[in-house]
Specification:
about 130 residues, mainly beta, Metal Binding Protein, Guanine Nucleotide Exchange Factor, Chain A, 7-stranded mixed beta sheet, 3-stranded antiparallel beta sheet, 1 helix, globular, metal-binding, CENP-V/GFA, zinc, GFA family protein, metal ion binding
Amino acid sequence: MSDPILGGCYCGKIRFEANPPVLYQAYCHCDNCRKAIGAQVVAWITVESSKFKYTQGTPKTYHTETTADRTFCPDCGSSLTYVHPDRSTHVDIVTGSLDHPECYPPNRDVFPEEKLPWISLCNQGRA
């Protein structure tokens, strides 16, 4: 069995683990993700929700207008996960919240039609 994927928030009060396989490693360019995270593009990894669990602390959940649930640390505000009811068997984990984000480079783009004009797509070089 592969080692679990570990991560958590900036202040350390929330910790989680996910077990492989990683189903997707992607950049999301949608306006909702950009605003929720506060970045020009958001990197995510996706795992089966049955293979994800919080091991320390309890995140706060924000139920969005798109019916998705975004979790974040109630103390430091770090974004952690995204779950949409249309894909409730999957959880998207913010790559920046991983202990080793360098192990999961994005290899695809989601909502590329919404990307900011000065961002390059994965297949066009460095994003």
